[in-house]
């Protein structure tokens, strides 16, 4: 396994912080390109990638319709996301001359900015109330940028960091792994797609046709893991409309493909060239490994994405402590 891919022991996400832990408001630490070295050596990077890989392993070979445990914390997170969804309905787009970046998004975002700590407090037990302001920052970072009215993989990473922090304080546990992806992250994707469509959000830092997707990356990683060792669906099938329409309810990867084909016109090979190339890979395990490498290179090691990442006591900037 490459450096930085060491997975944490299975119970590492169950560490409950000591009552004396000093929670802090996360802030930016990556100000210049040379600072990227600090990020790659940081405890935050190790914990974040460990979290992504642990979930990747947890959903391997499982359908979205698989029967998994749903804890109270998971239910509360879904309720939180349902609230964000309801606010979209309550904040319709406004008439404006420009087609993209509807300014009503700023009204929607201002509500989240104001209510984020109250929302997070519904998920976090009272004895951990001190963690709420720190964790809430990642929720606010996870839904797009209200100045630019855009959304991209950096915002998606903030939502994964939000979930990672909830694991670190013991709100989410090891046996929540499948539900974190299938129940919470899947609901998050639905809300983000609704935001993108309702307010015509711009893709943040998009590489256009050369990027994997305009808005997301993680559901392709976890979605390809779901399909590993599938008896008949191979990577070549995801560009087949029939295979997608028949199987998208079971697989996150195919849901992403369906959304792309609904939002874009023209030949798939032209508007989604990277995905088209991936459809030629012989196995889902190779797709999965390749996407993890690509995620590190194209998202986690890119200054324009990571300059916005925030570091606190739960995802600290200090170098990995060997233990």
- What general outline do the C-alpha atoms trace? globular
Query: pLDDT under 50 segments (min length 5)?
Result: 1-15
Q: Give the N-terminus to C-terminus distance in angstroms.
A: 19 Å
Order of helices and strands: EHHHHHEHHEHHHHHHHE
Task: Please work out how many helical segments DSSP would assign.
Answer: 14
Tag the structure with descriptive keywords.
323 residues, Phstyr_phstse_ac, mainly alpha, disordered N terminus, two-stranded antiparallel ribbon, ATP-binding, nucleotide-binding, 4 strands
Structural write-up:
Helix content is 51%, strand content 2%. It has 323 residues and is an all-alpha fold. The two termini are 19 Å apart. The N terminus is likely disordered.
Short description:
The protein has 323 residues and is mainly alpha-helical. 51% of the residues lie in helices and 2% in strands. It has helices spanning 36-41, 43-58, 72-90, 104-121, 132-141, 153-168, 177-198, 218-226, 241-247, 252-263, 268-271, 273-278, 284-300, 303-306; strands at 27-28, 150-151, 202-203, 310-311.
């Amino acid at each position: 396994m490459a450096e930085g891919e060491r997975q944490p022991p299975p119970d590492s996400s169950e560490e409950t912080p000591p009552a004396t832990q000093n929670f802090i408001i996360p802030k930016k630490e990556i100000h210049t390109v040379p600072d990227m070295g600090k990020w790659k050596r940081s405890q935050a990077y190790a914990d974040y990638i460990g979290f992504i890989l642990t979930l990747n392993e947890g959903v391997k070979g499982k359908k979205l319709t698989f029967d998994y445990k749903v804890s109270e914390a998971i239910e509360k997170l879904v309720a939180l996301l349902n609230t964000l969804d309801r606010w979209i309905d309550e904040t319709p787009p406004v008439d404006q001359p420009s087609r993209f970046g509807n300014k009503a998004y700023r009204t929607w975002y201002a509500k989240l900015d104001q209510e984020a700590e109250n929302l997070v407090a519904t998920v976090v037990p009272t004895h951990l109330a001190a963690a709420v302001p720190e964790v809430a920052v990642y929720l606010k970072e996870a839904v797009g940028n209200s100045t630019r009215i855009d959304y991209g993989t950096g915002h998606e990473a903030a939502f994964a960091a939000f979930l990672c922090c909830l694991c670190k304080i013991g709100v989410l546990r090891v046996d929540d792994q499948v539900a974190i992806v299938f129940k919470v992250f899947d609901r998050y994707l639905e809300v983000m797609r609704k935001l993108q469509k309702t307010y015509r959000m711009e893709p943040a830092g998009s590489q256009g046709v050369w990027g994997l997707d305009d808005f997301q990356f993680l559901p392709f990683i976890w979605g390809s893991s779901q399909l590993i060792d599938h008896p008949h669906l191979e990577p070549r099938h995801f560009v087949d409309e029939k295979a997608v329409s028949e199987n998208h309810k079971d697989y996150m990867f195919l849901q992403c493909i369906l959304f792309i084909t609904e939002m874009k016109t023209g030949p798939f090979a032209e508007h989604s060239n990277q995905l088209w190339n991936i459809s030629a890979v012989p196995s889902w395990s190779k797709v999965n490994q390749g996407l993890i490498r690509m995620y590190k290179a194209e998202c986690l090691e890119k200054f324009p994405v990571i300059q916005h990442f925030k570091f606190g006591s739960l995802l600290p900037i200090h170098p990995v402590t060997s233990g």
